[in-house]
Amino acid sequence: MTISVPAALAASMNHDAAWLAALPSLVADLQQRWSLRADGPLRHGMAGIVLPVLRTDGSPAALKVQPVADDNAATALGLTLWAGNGSVELFEHDPSSGGMLLERLDATRPLASLAGTDTVTDVAAMQILAELLARLVAVQAPAGVRRLADIAAAMVDETPGAARALPDPAERTLLGTCAAVVADLIGEAGDRLLHWDLHYDNVLAGEREPWLAIDPEPLAGDPGFDLWPALNSGWQEIVVPSGDVERTVLRRFDQLTATLGLDRRRAAGWTLGRVLQNGLWDVEDGSAALDPAQVTLARILLEHRML
User: Fold this and answer.
1) Candidates 3.90.215.10, 3.90.1200.10, 3.40.50.720, 3.20.20.120; correct CATH number of 110-303?
2) pLDDT computed for residue 129 by the predictor
3) What are the boundaries of each domain within the chain?
4) Separation CA 47–CA 70 (nearest Å)
């Protein structure tokens, strides 16, 4: 099967015309190499494609192809180490292209579909995510994976320049506070294998297990640095409509830290590290203000004196 590059993918990746041009032949080569037959319509995100396929024994799988980048360079390594324990299973990997043959999950049933919009379903969904995360971070990170200590040190160094780009003095102060907290934690940045992006849409329903994590961006560090995506899950759909943002954030935070057995102060500190990271990225992208949701989350953690 020769695929056509979706127009939306081409528009989002117009900076990488060479990769887009090579994509149809790359997919065809991987299908031939791994003896795959297309088994459904191609899906895509902002930076890659997923093609449902059948293997030679008739079992379903998913062929994923995206450009190799810093954030996904260790994805196959992480999936290999987890070996399907809480994560999607990796069957094949082509290091040169980044192509991966994965266990097929149900892309129409992310954990967000279970979370709904009420507290009861959100508690249930957050517990599923927390238990998956606990299994993932139980693995020690190997050599060759990016280290949180290095990333955190770079963030602290970048903060003064980024803060100057924020007109709001309160936001400048908040960014500096986050950086100071991170600076105090760098000496014990941890060695667990982190997912780095585990939120409700990165957990899909499966057959081997009811729910499994997908799309990791492996990092070696403290599990507390992995909490922000979960805390931020469904912010506009669940957290804000709850009518009590503070209570919802604290309930989620307590649920995550209890399930993972984390020290709440350290976890709060590393969560502020994610707020710092996101703020630095926003400023780098030209924003003159921090994301209001990030500001709210940071202030809740700070006001409750978890630090």
Assistant:
1) 3.90.1200.10
2) 98
3) 7-104, 110-303
4) 13
Residue ranges of E strands in the chain:
37-38, 43-44, 49-54, 60-65, 90-94, 99-103, 106-110, 192-194, 203-205, 211-213, 219-221
Which positions ≥6 away from 203 have C-beta within 8 Å? 110, 111, 128, 129, 132, 211, 212, 213, 214
Residues that are catalytic = 197
Could you read off the pLDDT of 252-294 as tens digits, one per residue? 999 999 999 999 999 999 999 999 999 999 999 999 999 999 9
This prediction has a pTM of 0.95
Task: Map tokens 């780095």 to a residue.
Answer: 196
CA distance 67 to 7: 17
Q: Report which residue type is found at 69.
A: A
- The C-alpha atoms of residue 282 and residue 270 are separated, in whole angstroms, by 18
- From the number of C-beta atoms within 10 Å of its C-beta (0-12, 13-18, 19+), residue 153 rates as middle
Q: Which two tokens stand for residue 183?
A: 């600076």
User: Is residue 220 within 8 Å of 194, Cβ to Cβ?
Assistant: yes
Per-residue pLDDT band for 125 (boundaries 50, 70, 90) equals: very high
Query: How many C-beta atoms lie closer than 10 Å to residue 303's C-beta?
Result: 9
Residue 8 has pLDDT above 80, yes or no: yes
Residue 193's beta-bridge partner residues?
Answer: 220
Average pLDDT of the chain?
A: 95
Query: Which CATH number applies to 7-104: 3.20.20.80, 3.60.10.10, 3.30.200.20, 1.20.1250.20?
Result: 3.30.200.20
Say how far apart CA 306 and CA 269 lie, in whole Å. 8
